[in-house]
């Protein structure tokens, strides 16, 4: 559905959300494959540690907060001046705050939506003109299988990811005819600082390195939706096809919540 990526050698990737978890593992694997990678996140120290030992021509460190448009614009201008453009914008920045109706926190909800949803929209005024001017390249957005349908403890997280799924689908309709790739990345449970907040058994839990491998394989194959691990995510795909009465019953039964 998207142009296939035959090689990562020399490909210019701006990875936003590179400091921990899937982002850090993806950055490590991209650098090992010969891509030129611009690393962005709030923690400059963690980005520097990721870049250690990599030739300066292959990596750039661009610390920023994705919720701050001015910081993004400055980093983008610096990157384009140095590399002449970006072949792949990969947005992995995001947060997770477990929340249910009896513990709703309006301020925490606002902050999570600002990070997960508005943060992505802050990148679009930079990425979309650049990609269309180039006439090639791609945009990858990390959402989550939690965006498929409502799930316990995902009172704000789930809707934020559902918004990104809809956004990626709509962007694909606009950009695919122009030869520009759009990649929707929907992970299941990955062992990261975010999922460490969960107090329940997470089925089919995988490591960040496994997640990064699946992500890059999906990008190379030109998939629109990249989801992993499939032994878990395909069950959720099935559940979202069910009528509400059966869906709600099964979710309560499987989660005990």
Structural notes for this entry:
By secondary structure, the chain is α/β, with parallel strands linked by helices. The chain has one domain: NAD(P)-binding Rossmann-like Domain (Rossmann fold, 3-Layer(aba) Sandwich), CATH 3.40.50.720. It has 8 helices and 7 strands. It has helices spanning 21-32, 44-51, 69-83, 106-134, 157-175, 208-221, 230-239, 244-255, and strands at 12-16, 36-40, 59-61, 88-91, 138-142, 181-187, 225-228. A 7-stranded parallel beta sheet has the order 3-2-1-4-5-6-7, with helices on both faces. Helix 1 crosses helix 6 (208-221) and helix 4 (106-134) packs parallel to helix 5. The radius of gyration is 18 Å and the shape is globular. The N and C termini lie far apart (38 Å).
* Cα-to-Cα separation, first versus last residue: 38 Å
Helix content: 40-55%
Put simply, the count of helices is: 8
CATH architecture name: 3-Layer(aba) Sandwich
CATH topology: Rossmann fold
Unreliable segments of 5+ consecutive residues? none
The number of E-state strands comes to: 7
Shape, principal axes of CA atoms: globular
* Average residue pLDDT: 94
- The secondary structure category is alpha/beta
The structural domain count equals 1
Main sheet attributes: strand count, strand direction, barrel closure: 7 strands, parallel
Q: What is the N-to-C order of secondary-structure elements (H for helix, E for strand)?
A: EHEHEHEHEHEHEHH
From the alpha carbons, calculate the radius of gyration and give it in angstroms: 18 Å
CATH superfamily: NAD(P)-binding Rossmann-like Domain
Task: Name the beta content range.
Answer: 5-15%
Oligomer: single chain
* Level-1 CATH class name: Alpha Beta
Instruction: Write out the strand line-up for the largest beta sheet, numbering strands in chain order.
Output: 3-2-1-4-5-6-7
Pfam families: adh_short
GO molecular function: oxidoreductase activity
Organism: Parvibium lacunae
Protein name: SDR family NAD(P)-dependent oxidoreductase
